[in-house]
Specification:
This protein is mainly alpha-helical. Helix content is 71%, strand content 5%. The chain has a two-stranded antiparallel sheet with strand order 1-2. Strand 1 (42-43) and strand 2 form a beta hairpin. Helix 1 packs antiparallel against helix 2 (48-79). It is elongated.
């Protein structure tokens, strides 16, 4: 099955967004953890490193999932591959 230019464009946009969100995930998970001791300022009354480990990274993960779901729904509608509800 040969892919059309429209299919390639859809997958390029999908993979680009996936790569960007994976980069954000990597930074939040590994880079901030690595430099946590250097980030010694208070954030909502707690040390920033503690906040990122306990709450901040989890919030970022949920935001990544929500953004990706919304983005893909919009992209699917744009390219006509969204799931139509059965009536």
């Amino acid at each position: 099955m040969a892919l059309t230019a429209r299919h390639r464009e859809y997958w390029r946009k999908n993979l680009t967004m996936t790569g960007i969100l994976l980069a954000v995930w990597f930074i939040v998970t590994f880079v901030l953890s690595y430099y946590a001791r250097d980030l010694s300022f208070d954030f909502f009354g707690w040390p920033f490193s503690f906040y990122m480990a306990a709450q901040g990274s989890l919030i970022v993960y949920v935001l990544i999932i929500a953004f990706y779901a919304g983005y893909m729904n919009r992209l699917d509608r744009e390219y006509g591959v969204d799931e139509e509800e059965e009536s």
